[in-house]
Amino acid sequence: MNLIKEHVVHPHESFRLLRLELDAFRGVRHRHRHLELTWIETGAGLRYVGDSVQPYEAGDLVLLGPNVPHAWISSQHEQRQVHRATVIQFAPDLLTTQLLPELAAARALGETTGQGLLVGAAARAAITDAILRIPHQPGLRALSAFVEVLGQLELHQGSMTPIASQAARALATSHTEQDRRIARVIEWMHINLARELRLEEAARLAHVSPAAFSRFFSREVGKSFTDYINDIRCGETCLLLRATDKPVRLIASECGFETLSHFNRQFRLRFGMSPREFRSRH
Fold first, then answer.
1. Would you tell me how many other CB atoms lie within 10 Å of the CB of residue 46?
2. Cα–Cα distance, 44 to 79 (Å, whole number)
3. Where are the alpha helices (H) located in the chain, listed in sequence order?
4. Between 160 and 180, whose confidence is greater?
5. How far apart are the first and last CA of the chain?
6. Are the CB atoms for 120 and 159 separated by under 8 Å?
7. 3-state SS, residue 212
8. For 16, 105, 143, 213, which has the most beta carbons within 10 A of its beta carbon?
């Protein structure tokens, strides 16, 4: 899960629209200077945004600000279905241009997206209906449909909640090596989730001493090594609770929790309910 800086190019358009249809989302953890609106039409898995790791499912709608690290990774239990998503990317300058002063009404969107914003269920239908109109329109009509998307986002700002616990830091050249080190550690976590993950191993991957690793990880990710591991593990258990009828104890073990009591405590801390309550509601 390498963190890379993506260079988004659309020289002949005000925005870039991508329609994705894949056997699975295996996105590389990346970031770029553009704002991005991602709508998951089908599929489920884990959503990585900044220091947050959370399960996602069909209907997930997220607005990201510039330089927010992100990736959507499909669940292994969802591999047999087609995974669809629509992604819109546009430069932050679009909201501040003096040539289109009407867009100033949406300027606050660019100022509040540093943590990533999850669009609430009540607002999704209006926004996704506007998104669906874009691909079927040529030229100026497509631009008009895109402006309607911005208008719906501005109208429903009150239904959006921050995803990450802190705003993304600016991406500078001096941080490139740190990003690569963190990417190696996160990929290692994801692959080896079922076993004990030792800080000393992570420190070797990051090429820092064990004594310095905790400070390094917290500074670069915004969350402690242990908390981030538990976030990923709890996210994976959500996917299994939804997709299978496996016993809760077995799911906890498969995701790396040594005891059921520890799993229940960590799960409740993140989702405000027990794993069994979560399963009954989903």
1. 21
2. 9
3. 107-111, 121-133, 139-155, 176-191, 199-206, 210-221, 225-243, 248-254, 260-271, 275-281
4. 160
5. 29
6. yes
7. helix
8. 213
Query: pTM surpassing 0.90?
Result: no
Rounded Cα gap, residues 265 and 201, in angstroms? 26
Q: Which of 138, 136, 220 is nearest to 185 (CA)?
A: 220
**Rounded distance between C-alpha atoms, residue 234 and residue 264, angstroms:** 10
Q: Which residues, including other chains, have CB under 8 Å from residue 80's CB and lie 6 or more apart?
A: none
**pLDDT top residue among 9 and 146:** 146
For residue 68 the two structure tokens come to 């927010």
**pLDDT (tens digit per residue) in 195-247:** 999 999 999 999 999 989 999 999 888 899 999 999 999 999 999 999 899 99
Under a CB-based contact definition with an 8 Å cutoff, are residues 195 and 173 in contact? no
Average pLDDT score over residue span 126-152: 91
Average pLDDT over residues 15-31: 85
The tokens for 14 are: 């005000």
> Does pLDDT of 257 surpass 90?
yes
Q: What does the pLDDT read at residue 1?
A: 46
pLDDT at 131 over 60: yes
Give the 3-state secondary structure percentages of the chain, helix then strand then coil, rounded to 5.
50, 20, 35
d(CA 49, CA 164): 6
Query: How far is residue 148's CA from residue 129's CA, in Å, rounded to a whole number?
Result: 10
| Cβ atoms 34, 91 nearer than 8 A | yes
Q: How many CA atoms, within 13 angstroms, populate the side-chain half-sphere of residue 242? A: 19
Task: Give the pLDDT confidence of 261-270 residue by residue, as tens digits.
Answer: 999 999 999 9
Rounded to the nearest 10 degrees, what angle do helices 210-221 and 176-191 cross at? 100
Average pLDDT over residues 54-79: 88
In the chain, beta strands by DSSP E:
4-5, 16-22, 30-31, 35-42, 45-49, 52-56, 61-64, 70-74, 83-90, 117-119, 160-162
